[in-house]
């Protein structure tokens, strides 16, 4: 599940000009190079994400799925995309398996303010981005739960990989800890 829904609901699934959407090996991006992002394919955009988002909007969580709603950084309009909500040691996290995509950029621009939707339930959160050195256990737990779905985006690194291997890919996968706002 990731950053693609129909344009009216998306977190902006179109990559900005100058971005290739390609995947470079971990640690090879030059300073100032575009941030890592692997754009979803047609099947993911047109079938899988729409199906999961539709189920989630109806209140059916698929392995922790939620619909992320965040203010678009350019339009100011609400943008929605399905995400996997990770609960680890009593805390909630969002991880971007595809990299620095549109929903990540929108969350950053909105100073971390977002909503997670499940059916008619709407929870308001403040997201704080984790530093790369804080991501290892979060990435391990994320991959343990969703490797079958998203493992391809992690360059062969999985839940049983070493801390060093997970740390090496951490810069490519933004992760946020969530704090519920009343």
Topology of this protein?
Blueprint: H1 42-57, E1 65-71, E2 78-88, E3 91-95, H2 102-109, E4 113-118, E5 121-129, H3 136-150, H4 163-169, E6 175-180
Instruction: State the assembly state of the protein chains.
Output: single chain
Rounded average pLDDT:
81
- Estimate the helix proportion, in percent: 25-40%
Distance between the termini: 27 Å
Computed over alpha carbons, the radius of gyration is 15 Å
Question: Main sheet: which strands, in order across?
Answer: 1-2-3-6-5-4
Question: How would you describe this protein?
Answer:
The protein has 182 residues and is α+β, with helices and mostly antiparallel strands. The longest helix has 16 residues. The two termini are 27 Å apart. The relative contact order is 0.19. The N terminus is likely disordered.
Give me a quick take on this structure:
By secondary structure, the chain is an alpha+beta fold.
Which properties best describe this structure?
182 residues, alpha+beta, 4 helices, 24% strand, disordered N terminus
